[in-house]
Amino acid sequence: MRISTRQFQQTSINGILERQNALSRTQEQMATGKRILSPADDPVAATRIHSFKESIGILQQYQSNADQVRNRLGSEEGILKGVVDSIQRVRELAVAGANGALSDVGRQSISEEVYTRLEALIGMANTMDANGEYIFGGNRGKTPPFVKSADVVVYNGDDGQRRLQIGPDFFVDDGDPGSDVFMRIKNGNRVFATEYNPANTGTATIDQGRVDNIMAYTRHDYTISFPAAGQVLVTDDTLGTAVSGFPQTYTPGEEIVFDGVAVTLAGDPVVGADTFSVKPSSSQDLFATVKRLADALGQPSGLASEETKAKMEITRSIAELDNALDHILNVSASVGSRLNSVEGQVFINEDTVLNLQEVMSGLEDLDYAEAVGKLNRQMVGMQAAQQVYLKVQGLSLFEFMR
After folding, report:
1. pLDDT digits (tens, 9 = 90+) for 378-399
2. CATH code for position 166
3. pLDDT digits (tens, 9 = 90+) for 81-99
4. Same domain? 300 vs 321
5. What does pTM read for this prediction?
6. What DSSP letter does each residue of 35-92 carry, written as one string?
7. Omega of the bond leading into 269 within 30 degrees of 0 (cis)
8. Residues 37, 43, 45, 51: is their CA dihedral positive or negative?
């Protein structure tokens, strides 16, 4: 078999180029620190590495979501702490204002501070987060959620809660709508609420009452009246009939019990005119509670009946401030629980990412000791191929015909 000079040269050059490519690839591997530079290097490992990178990317997005939730909930937690402090201060002012020895000037001063606290509470409820969204606006983060309209605070947000995924099967609410936090607080004793008739002209009072027997409680509306001197009548407004056992003898300061309800009446009512109501507890917003207290504290001395109503308002406000305080503390506890859950999931995500990176590193990272040995062998082979090519290229038959 004859090999032409051209064929020999082409074959030799191709061999040198192949060795040069292999040497260049090894040098590139050493420069990048990666064993796999393209899927062709190890298709199976390349597929696994791609899958790991996708998983790490998803986990990093979870971490980004967790950061957002953590920031929002952290802001809410701080605001709720301020709200709790304000409620506690308002309650202290209410207790101080209930002192019968206090002058009109003293009560007016307390009333003004309560109004100031009310404005502060509205301001806290309209707090924005770092992204310029209102924390308590629900899904309407760009609109101030609480707006004063005349003497009433109106909620302009919605009931929405944004849920962000921070783990493979873990979703967390990144906040609470203002309707749940500030607007839906049970009045009265949280089962039923007592109320005086604004038209009352006597000095009779009613307390917040208690549940005597929850199994007997009907959730009906009742009216308490005084049909004759020394008598008290309880009418079931839902049924339109008098409650069994009534009318009874009215003894100021003694408790009357009916249908699982127990209330205490005191003072002197106007017979045939003054009435009180007992109804199931309903939702009342925090701002209305504080405003009613401020209004009652600002009421100047005058008719005994009006002073009696103001005292009942103050007493009622103290009870409802306690309800509001419990409610806000429950919301705050929920926020704290979610923050703890987020922290736990962040640690899990970080640990998972680290494990995936370690496995991926084992697949794609270069073994430098092995690569150096390979590089040396390739360089020696390259030099040998070049030297052989040079020597063989110089051979000719004429060298043997001298």
Report:
1. 565 555 555 555 665 655 544 5
2. 1.20.1330.10
3. 999 999 999 999 999 998 8
4. yes
5. 0.81
6. S-SSGGG-HHHHHHHHHHHHHHHHHHHHHHHHHHHHHHHHHHHHHHHHHHHHHHHHHH
7. no
8. positive
